[in-house]
Design goal:
The complex is a heterodimer. Chain A is built from ten helices and ten strands. Chain A is an alpha+beta fold. Chain A has two domains: about 5-115, Nonspecific Lipid-transfer Protein, Chain A, CATH 3.30.1050.10; about 125-250, Nonspecific Lipid-transfer Protein, Chain A (2-Layer Sandwich), CATH 3.30.1050. In chain A, the strands form two sheets. Chain A has a five-stranded mixed sheet with strand order 3-2-1-4-5. In chain A, strands 8-7-6-9-10 form a five-stranded mixed sheet. In chain A, a hairpin with a 4-residue loop joins β1 and β2 (about 50-55). Chain A is globular and about 55 Å long. Chain B has helices at about 10-20, 80-90, 100-110, 125-140, 170, 185-190, 220-230, 250-255, 285-290, 300-315, 320-340, 365-375, 395-415, and strands at about 45-50, 55, 60-65, 120, 145-150, 175-180, 195-200, 235-240, 260-265, 275-280, 345, 355, 380. In chain B, α2 (about 80-90) runs antiparallel to α10 (about 300-315) and α12 (about 365-375) crosses α13 (about 395-415). Chain B starts with 7 loop residues before the first helix and ends with a helix. Chain B has two domains: about 10-65 and about 320-415, Aspartate Aminotransferase, domain 1, CATH 3.90.1150; about 80-315, Aspartate Aminotransferase, domain 2 (3-Layer(aba) Sandwich), CATH 3.40.640.10. Chain B is built from 13 helices and 13 strands. Chain B is of the alpha/beta class. Classes of the chains: A alpha+beta, B alpha/beta.
Chain lengths: ~250, ~425
């Protein structure tokens, strides 16, 4: 069963948290915010809070909503999740003079993000789009693993069995990200964490994509040599259990 | 340096398998759960087995220290066990009425296993651990079960955890987990759930994965036994893995206490398919009242094999033999590791030894070494305990140590001091 609060964490830090990587990957996305220097705070009642700061065509997300140019308030996690699902529009409670950005550039940016994260099958035939989409999904997954491991009841049981250290997740030589476990709390790492305490390496973008989309199974893929595991495999095993929960939230 | 194995045929078979069997090879004998790192270092399918040896699909011979994950205790194709099975097969096996060999087998177990007043037969370890828990609940009319962390009691939902695929909260909501060897924690749990705990279930010692195996602390089991008796809780020993490798009278007997229920499988019939739950008289009526059976559970051939297996284990004093051979192997491996400056830990009982190179806590170094051993014909696995069988010779141990040393040399070459 989905917990709206956990879903809000996944949507905020996983989905919207992927915007900085979208800007790195797609010049068209960068173009939308190139001249912008402002920050967008998300305040969700009984849920997470974070600020997305834009500057010089890049963005970063940080926890908390201190000193943001525009503050968006959501009266419940469900309201925020509905907004992410396209069922509602955000209303600012401060920074009204930036509403143009919210309704213009930011909306276009989130539309672009949705196009990559929920792609039309035909668009995946374009290798550039395919790579960007898959790389973005890995970023979303890394964040969502941390959120589900920290906040979902079943996910936190899995996290309680993860020993300290970094789990490195790689797609061939294209990208490496990580999840750091410390005292059973998980943090996503969106840069190459170097040699992990354990690792799960997808042979290539196609294997990663097939796994993300549920077309192949990780256990079978290990046997086929398409997914490599190594190091403290109990970490990988438990991250896989969390991934199963992530798919429930991000399906 | 030895020639390295080629696994072309294993790989071809796996490619076929994965098309028609979920994950190709599922469970503990599969490359994922078996932690085959890297997968190319390991054979995937066997072609035949004899004594301590296993030949893979490509014809590579291995000295097999997994022993089918335990069932091979006398050696693959032990002539005495196979002869008894063949003789029974010529008479009857799976029939409408059970053969009296079933009674013979039960009598033998009652005579052999210290805590046994009766025996109930099934097929797999999971069948009898599940029966034990159901019986404890039926007898006590309580729900809660206490487990020791690092446990493995099978694959039924009650044995799994809340985050396992297909397991729902209700399956495990009465499971309570305590640290192995932590009696104070167990006592606290009894305090918290007074009158609610149906059973305490434990393997005779902690043989969990990814960590050194841990024997019971002095007096631990005796305190657990006393507490269970005081609280009216059934004490279940899951001896599926260690059974008959430590003590033919049961691993509870080996550690100086008495279980109420004890579960056997793996080594019970040297690979013939049978498991047994043995227990004390006071639980016999409870078991009698339960609806619990299976299509092949009363087949006669495994009973005949089990009788021959137990009689032979008694004749050769199997636990002592396994301990001696396991100790020789342990000493040889430790010496080889030392020569190449590796801190190898060999833990658990020598007959069920667990290996870990402790220089690298991430276990990557360990995985490299295991891979080099397997490629050269010694079948070790990365993070599961191993098994000694009675057909293992001194020459096999010598060859194993030589291969292990060569593997250490290769790994040291990649990681110079």
């Amino acid at each position: 069963m989905k917990d709206e609060r956990v879903l809000a964490h996944c949507n905020l830090f996983g989905v919207l948290g992927a915007i900085p990587y979208l800007l790195e990957l797609d010049p068209a996305a960068r173009e939308l915010v190139n001249e912008k220097s402002l920050s967008l705070g998300f305040a969700i009642k009984d849920g997470p809070r974070a600020t997305l700061r834009f500057a010089n065509g890049a963005a970063e997300m940080t926890e908390g909503i201190e000193r943001c140019s525009i503050k968006l308030y959501f009266s419940s996690c469900k309201k925020f999740n509905d907004m992410i699902d396209g069922k509602g529009n955000p209303l600012p409670v401060s920074g009204f003079w930036h509403i143009g950005f919210l309704l213009g550039a930011f909306t276009k940016l989130t539309d672009l993000l949705s196009a990559y994260l929920r792609p039309e099958p035909s668009r995946l035939e374009d290798p550039v789009f395919f790579e960007r989409s898959t790389v973005l999904m890995l970023h979303v997954i890394a964040s969502a693993v941390a959120e589900v491991g920290n906040y979902d009841r079943v996910g936190s049981f899995s996290a309680s069995n993860i020993v300290d250290g970094v789990i490195r997740l790689s797609i061939g030589d294209t990208l490496s990200v990580g999840v750091r476990a410390k005292d059973h709390k998980l943090t996503a790492i969106h840069t190459d964490p170097g040699e992990g305490f354990s690792e799960m390496r997808f042979a290539n973008l196609k294997t990663a994509r097939d796994l993300f989309d549920g077309r192949i199974n990780a256990v079978a893929a290990v046997g086929m040599g398409e997914v490599r595991i190594g190091g403290m495999i109990s970490q990988v095993d438990n991250v896989n259990r969390i991934l199963d929960r992530v798919s429930l939230y991000l399906a | 340096m030895r020639k390295l194995n080629d696994y072309t045929k294993s790989r071809e078979a796996f490619d076929r398998a994965v098309k028609v069997i979920p994950s190709g090879i599922y469970g503990h004998q599969g490359p994922a759960e078996g932690c085959y790192v890297p997968v190319e270092a390991f054979p995937l399918f066997s072609s035949r087995a004899q004594g301590s040896y296993l030949w893979d699909a490509d014809g590579n011979r291995f000295i097999d220290y997994m022993c089918a994950y335990g069932p091979n205790i006398l050696g693959y194709h032990d002539p005495d066990v196979d002869a008894a099975a063949a003789k029974q097969r010529a008479i009857s096996d799976c029939t409408t009425l059970p053969n009296t060999v079933m009674v013979d087998f039960a009598e033998l177990l009652v005579d052999t296993v210290a805590c046994a007043d009766w025996a109930f037969f099934a097929k797999n370890g999971n069948d009898v651990t599940t029966l034990a828990i159901m019986a404890a609940r039926a007898y006590t009319h309580r729900k809660k079960i206490v487990f020791f962390k690092g446990y493995y009691h099978g694959v039924s939902p009650w044995t799994q955890k809340i985050d396992y695929a297909g397991v729902i909260e209700e399956d495990v909501m009465h499971n309570i987990y305590v640290e192995w060897n932590n009696y104070e924690q167990l006592e606290a749990v009894f305090e918290e759930y007074q009158g609610e705990i149906a059973a305490v279930i434990g393997q005779p010692y902690m043989h969990g994965n990814f960590m050194d195996n841990v024997l019971p602390a002095t007096g631990f089991w005796q305190k657990v036994r006393k507490k269970c008796t005081e609280e009216g809780t059934v004490l279940v020993v899951d001896d599926v893995r260690a059974g008959f490798r430590l003590d033919l009278a049961g691993s509870d007997h080996y550690f100086g206490f008495e279980a109420d229920l004890i579960c056997f499988c793996k080594a019970l019939a040297n690979g013939y398919n049978v498991s047994a739950l043995c227990g004390k008289e006071f639980l016999k009526n409870t078991i009698s009242s339960m609806s619990y059976t299976g299509s092949y559970w009363l087949s006669a051939v495994p009973f005949a094999a089990g009788i021959a297996c137990i009689e032979k284990m008694k004749k050769i004093n199997c636990p002592k033999l396994l301990d001696e051979q396991g100790t020789k192997l342990k000493n040889g491996l430790l010496e080889a590791a030392k020569k190449y400056s590796f801190d190898l830990h060999v833990t658990g009982a020598p007959s069920l030894f667990y290996l870990r190179i402790a220089d690298d806590p991430s276990l990557k170094l360990h995985q490299e070494w295991i891979a080099e051993c397997v490629k050269r014909g010694v079948f070790f696995t990365n993070h599961h305990n191993h098994f000694i069988n009675a057909s293992l010779t001194d020459d096999d141990i010598k060859e194993t140590v030589e291969i292990a040393a060569e593997a250490f040399e290769v790994v040291r070459g990649c990681h110079p001091l």
